[in-house]
Amino acid sequence: MIRGFLFLISATLLWSGNYIAGRVLAPAMPALMLNGVRWTLSAIELAVILAISGKRLPVIQKWREFTLLGFVGMFIFSGLTYLGLHSIPAAQAGMISGLIPVAILIFGVIIIKDKGSAMAWFGTALSLVGVVILLGPGHSRSKSPLSIGDIEMVIAAAAWGLYTVLGKRYGRNLDPLTLTAGAAVYGAIPSDIAGLVTFSPGSLHMTGQAWLALLYVSTAASVIAYFAWTFGVEKVGTTRSAPWMNLLPVWTTLLGITLLGERVNITQLVGGAVVLLGAVLAGRRKRTATSRIGDRESA
């Protein structure tokens, strides 16, 4: 179980770096083109890993599952994330990602009837309090209502919640590597189409830093992070995984400060601490015979 939580933490840390890289790449190329390039490279890398592992990718047999996962997780979630990062700071985008656990719990109840434990709900609720603090008065200098970037990030959060729950459902018959590879292959198709549509001559302004950021998003933030998250969800279950996604605002804020020079105030610090506490509490519950059976059924 501890190993599963470590994978979830590692995934959120790597994804927070994706927000930083997305901000670096914002002036370098169109957002949807970036998404297409990212998942094309990731799909190739994952296919090579599968081949080395001696596994086959059931692209025909599981095309429905892969198409849905790829569209929701790679095209919608990732594409809207890069679009949002064109207009809002990385830290703010990461804060909005704190809404993801709510989406995971809601879709978990609807799709796989995974209602979760009382402690999981309590930890999630506490984490949401932290998100409210993070997004409340004082989270930015702007006094305007939600921008288009904020809305894009909110929709992206809902998409990732759906992807996580669907991944849990389909993961009963597919291992995490195959599941991620299949989703990447099918997700790269609409991502590439959208990227070509939005591309125009002169829209590329790649620098050395931008190339490094592109390498990061196509490897660490894609192959490694997605595999880590899928493996973690398989080990601990969807509802117990949900609150750990709230670590994204914490990691993103810290990286935004250290790498991008973004400023953080006391409100964000308090909110981040509450988010972290909620995630830790959500990972703790009383071990009973019933709960042990539930863990095995959700793994």
Report on this structure.
This protein is an all-alpha fold and 299 residues long. The chain has 14 helices and no strands. The chain has one domain (2-298). 75% of the residues lie in helices and 0% in strands. Helix 1 packs across helix 4 (90-96) and helix 2 crosses helix 9. Residues 285-299 have low confidence and may be disordered. It is a multi-pass membrane protein. This is EamA domain-containing protein. Residues 3-135, 148-282 form the EamA domain.
Descriptive labels:
mainly alpha; 14 helices; 299 residues
| DSSP strand tally | 0
Largest sheet report: none
Class inferred from helices and paired strands: mainly alpha
Low-confidence stretches: 285-299
How many helices in DSSP terms? 14
Overall number of structural domains: 1
What would the average pLDDT be, to the nearest integer?
A: 83
Beta-strand fraction estimate: under 5%
Order of helices and strands: HHHHHHHHHHHHHH
Helix content: over 70%
Rg estimate, integer Å: 18 Å
End-to-end Cα distance, whole Å, is 10 Å
- Any idea what the shape is? globular
Subcellular location: Endomembrane system
Main location: membrane
Transmembrane segments: 32-54, 66-85, 91-112, 119-136, 148-166, 178-199, 211-231, 243-260, 266-283
GO cellular component, one term: membrane
